[in-house]
Amino acid sequence: MHIAIVSAHELSPETPAIARELSRGHRVTVYTRRYSPELRDRGRLAPGVTVEHVPAGPATRLPESGLLPYLSDFSAGLQERWDRERPDVIHAHSWTSGLAAIAGAERLGVPVTQTFHSLGGRDEEEEDEAGEGARGGPDAGIRLRLERAIGRRANAVIASCAGEESELIRLGVPRRNIAIVPGGVDVERFRRHGPAFPRGERPRLVHVGRLSPAGGAGTAIRALEAVPGAELVIAGGPAAGELESDPDHRRLRALAEEVGVADRVTFLGHVPYAAMPKLMRSADIVITLPQTVPTGMVALEAMACGVPVIASAVGAHLDSVVDGVTGFLIPPRNPAALARRAREVLGDPTLRTALGYAGADRARSRYSLERIGQELVRVYEDVRAARACA
């Protein structure tokens, strides 16, 4: 197959990895908006994967909420390219990409599959669970109507977990058109053995996520008071040099002072994707406590590194984290529950080792890119077969 991946917004760190996996047996082209004048029209995203940068609007980075005025230009650019080089199946990532892909493919007869990643009905959808920046959107009501239309028009909608499947059904997407394919983790990059960030003698808790109130960092800071001797390293938010001007960082720093743990809390700011395995391997426990969890990638990456996870009992975490086996699930905004589980894991080296091994095994066996790639290909083949029979 010739698989077209459409991402109107900037590509996620995982896109090259899953595209490379798909390219092992298929031809893959990734289409994204040109966000820098330095980007060439066509290039190589990964071995075997072509990327095309489609001019649409200013050649600068925009939040997803800023893409709407330029989506018609983007879809026209897609249509022009697909007229010359017709794909066999299209996979749109995000609602803006879905709008552009459906319009661009309208007269080609090519099946379109859709992954939303974040639905407009979710609270705090503006940022992803790893704190990678704004996702944004129009008025919630408008966005929901657009998502409903995309969900009904797409040949298949790919949900990342059972919870998202339920949301899509409530949105009006027919159950028969929904396939559950979780996010995949690069188990060669995120693995048990490898370099780690330096650390001292203190037990280390690492929280990865956005710094906003719904991100869970405040819960981790409050819990630290009841985990004596441990340090808390917080990754997420803007770059380290911009933290002082960030209101969420100032709020969390003040909270640490108030609770009396400021000397045991370190803010790293944004940690690049390539450095995340080193950070996670330096931890005794990785904490991820967002209130909404579209993909649960932080927990999966930590599990793949063989590090015990304490995660919020919501969304994709309910599918990926086996409570008491690969980590622990706790209610969001519950510092007491977090502190109790952290003390339990830190105080029992055997438990910590068992959780780490079980997490790494589950990540590799269920969430490897190889397996997720195979599941995506099955969805693509199904929609092609259904279109051929229509």
Description of the structure:
- With 390 residues, this protein is an alpha/beta fold.
- It has two domains: 2-184 and 369-389, Rossmann fold (3-Layer(aba) Sandwich); 204-366, Glycogen Phosphorylase B (Rossmann fold).
- It has helices at 15-22, 71-84, 95-104, 140-153, 162-171, 217-224, 247-259, 276-281, 297-304, 317-320, 335-346, 349-366, 369-389, and strands spanning 2-7, 27-33, 42-46, 49-54, 89-93, 112-115, 156-159, 178-180, 204-208, 231-235, 265-269, 285-288, 309-312, 327-330.
Quick rundown:
The protein is an alpha/beta fold and 390 residues long.
Percent strand equals: 15-25%
Low-confidence stretches: 123-128, 130-136
Indicate the CATH architecture of the largest domain.
3-Layer(aba) Sandwich
Termini separation: 19 Å
Question: Strand-and-helix sequence, N→C?
Answer: EHEEEHEHEHEHEEHEHEHEHEHEHHH
Fraction of helical residues: 25-40%
How many separate structural domains?
Answer: 2
Largest sheet at a glance?
8 strands, mixed
Q: Helices and strands: which structural class?
A: alpha/beta
Number of DSSP E strands:
14
Give the CATH superfamily of the largest domain.
Glycogen Phosphorylase B
The fold-level CATH name of the largest domain is: Rossmann fold
Compute the gyration radius: what is it?
21 Å
Overall 3D shape: globular
Mean pLDDT: 93
Number of helices: 13
Assigned CATH class of the largest domain: Alpha Beta
Strands side by side in the biggest sheet = 3-4-2-1-5-6-7-8
